[in-house]
Amino acid sequence: MYGRAEQADWGEALRRTVRRLREEHPARWPELAPGPPIVPDAALDPDLARPPEQDLHRLLDAVPQAAVLAEPVRGSDGAVLDLAVVIANEAVVRHPHHPEQLSGQAAEGHGVSLREAYPGLWTEPVATAVEEVLRTGHAARGVPVRWDGAGPDGSARSRRERLTVHRLGRRLLLLWTDDRTEEVARAAQRIARVGWAEWTLRDGRLDISPGLAVLLGRTPDTETLTLHEMLGRVTETARPALYRALDRLLTTGADIDVLTELYGVGRPRRVRLVAEVVRDEGGPIEGLRAVLQDVTELYESQRRLREQQEETERQARRADAEHSVVQRLQDALQPRSATLIGLGVTTAVAYRPAEGRVGGDWFKVRQLPDGRALLAVGDARGHGLDAVALMSMLRHALAGLAFTGALVESLGGWLNRIACDDSDESTATAIVSRYYPDRHLLRWICAGHPPPVLLRDGRATLVPAEIGPPFGVLPKAAYRAAETLVRPGDTVLLYTDGLIERRDQDIDVRLDALCAAVEAHAGEPALQDLVDAVVRDMSGPLSEDDATLLAFRFDS
Fold it and tell me: How far apart are CA 428 and CA 193, in angstroms?
């Protein structure tokens, strides 16, 4: 009661079905009534019963294989030196690879030298087999031979066949069997890891192919097994399903296609088994035939593919969740407008996110207590949470440091130290500028960032920069400021590299394209319209990196 539950015998139903079919089998096939006994004619002349040479020729013509009746040619020491062809059947004459000199001559009884007709055939194994057959009378089967012949087009080629030698009195009967078809079949079974089996219901005989023998861990020359031995190779976990499938096959006659598992060489192998019953039309089931294919590698590949797909889906879900968090964090940290009041400066900004990713672009526009303005654009390295965290740190640090009234050179040095102290991977590029309204002067530093664009009188040009290293690369780096005098009506554009960089285009080409886009839309009355149009012109169908464009127009 408390012990292990008794395991169901899943093979019992299959055994009952087999017993029933065997019991029903003889009843379905009425035995033939015995005919009258054959009584030999005592008056028949023995000489007339012996087949003449012509009848022997007709008999050999009925043999589908290439066949030759030959007379041994012996030397003075009694050893067989050659074979003289007596009869060559029609299969030899019709065969495109067998010699033409056998046609006609053998039929008339003229001997043809076998060594001359088949160059290279008479080898030591063939000579030994011939001597052994003549001595013992036992046939030599499957003797491998190779001889030089001509193809249908007359080209020379080497033939590889198997030869069977029988003794007929003092003569020898040679039968050629082309083993190419057999070799191709064996190779196909080996390459495709497939084999076949045929089970006969009457005697329980199970014939198997060499491919199946190898699959079961047997030698390729294993030709038969018992059904018990075959089913014994099925793993315990796979037997119930296979037994049910075989029982359904023998009960209904419907083909089956199942995946099972067999013990073979090494670990168990996954095997696809396709089987059908053997029967005459309307007759009883006489057995079954099956084809088995080793699909272990395919099954493992599919399993690994499913695991990779599941892992990809998990990573995609994590990436979507991270992207959502980063996007919300960036939205909270990144302002969507830039406004200065009372300084005679109009500002506009546009941000284009990367396709499926969130980057580290940032900008800062701040009116300072001393009546000046802070204008900055930066790009933190990488994407995702790390980039957003670095972007947030540098942006807020700059906002606080700018209130000290320090020069932009000092601001750049402090931001560089902050990035260096954060981690080895915390690097960023930026342009940090301070505008002096009373002097119409823009002082700015460049930390590894693309240069600004100046739009003046309808023409856009790059402003020469004093380029320093990106923040976070060299702890003691010093930055030099560039000074740009602006006029009323001038527009300065600061941007991140995502606006201009393309893998398939040179950076100088892209900078020229940016200046051309700015000039093309210079007539836009509203600065925001200019910014939006430039970003639209510079964007491709798929953005590899996020991009920010900050523009400020000096009205007075």
Answer: 58
Quick one: CA dihedral 281, 282, 288, 292, positive or negative? positive
Count the helix, strand and coil residues of the chain and give each as a percent rounded to the nearest 5. Answer: 35, 30, 35
DSSP per residue over 323-340, as a string? HHHHHHHHHHHS-S----
**Over the stretch 64-111, which tens digit does the pLDDT of each residue have?**
888 888 899 998 888 999 998 888 888 877 776 677 667 654 444 457
Using CA atoms of 417, 423, 424, 429 in order, give the dihedral in degrees to the nearest 10. Answer: -50
Tell me the CA distances in angstroms from 208 to 221, 224, 238, 246, 255, one per residue in order. 10, 6, 21, 17, 19
Q: Does residue 157 surpass a pLDDT of 90? A: no
Cα 525-531-537 angle, rounded to 5 deg: 110
**Which helix (H) or strand (E) element contains residue 46?**
helix 46-49
pTM: 0.46
Token pair, residue 377, equals: 């654009």
pLDDT in the model for residue 31: 44
DSSP string of 449-508, one letter each residue: -PPPEEEETTEEEEPP--EEPPBTT-TT-----EEEE--TT-EEEEE-GGGT--TTS-HH
Q: What are phi and psi of 509, to 5 degrees?
A: -65, -40
Rounded Cα–Cα distance for residues 430 and 426 (Å): 13
Report which of 58, 71, 246, 256 is spatially closest to residue 167, judged by C-alpha positions: 71
- Distance from CA of residue 554 to its chain's centroid? 61
Q: What is the mean pLDDT of residues 455-459?
A: 95
350 and 531 in contact (C-beta within 8 Å)? yes
**pLDDT score, position 303:** 83
More confident residue, 173 or 1: 173
Please choose, from the candidates 87, 133, 129, the residue with its C-alpha nearest in 3D space to the C-alpha of residue 112.
Answer: 87
